[in-house]
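Exercise: predict the fold of this chain.
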Amino acid sequence: MQNNNKGKFDGWLFYSDFDGTVYSEAITVEEKPKSKISQENIDAIRYFQANGGRFAFASGRFVSMICETVPEIKLNAPVISVNGAILASPDDFSEIRRGTIDTAPMFEYMYDLYKTDDGVVGGHFYGADNNSYHFSALYGDEPDHDAFLAAMPDTCLKMIILVKDEDSERVTELIREQLGDRYHVSRSWINGIEIVDKAFSKGQAALFAKKYVGAKHLVCVGDYENDLDMIEVADIGYAVANAIPSVKAVADRITVSVHEHALAAIVRELEAEIDASEK
């Protein structure tokens, strides 16, 4: 994956979370158009890339979902998907790095919580076959234990334990206590506790990508709990203004909200600092 453009952002690698950081139901507070990335952000990313920078998204989604959702942007860095379980080429989606967890023990763990804890309402598995397997009591799904397990592949990329709003903090801490030594446990939203191999979080994927492309500077931005370690390992870690308090607490800088074109604001800030340092 070549990066032949030379310019002020040469050596810079920029990762942005997707939902809640750059992709929102409302691009402005006053208007609520179909979910999209603002033209200001698109133009800023293109400018960053045209001047030597590498840019890609880091998301809980499958890589194809990320790239197909934003066809206006040609990513030029490895894409972090499934919260770090997959690092893939932006050119053809071929995998550079993959982390999996064994399905059966994780399913049994989730199913036991589902049966014994009123705060747990279901499970969602991203299979290593790139298919999703899902059930939720909120929608009247009551899985047949044996049939559900038999339908899934032997390994999965991540598991999501679905919880009620009021039980989210409690169940998250419980899972961290029980699984945190082996797995990375975080939330992408209040109802979803996401579990991946500990070596395949967003942060670990970003560090791998920095070395892989030979970048000198790693910039990361996010809004929610699954972005925490990515922001912590970055040379410059940003939180958007709409980020949750724990993300703001670890960020080096807080930029504008998702509704105010956060990526454009970051590119402008970085450019001003680079220009000032060269005077």
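Check your answer against the key: The longest helix spans residues 262-277.
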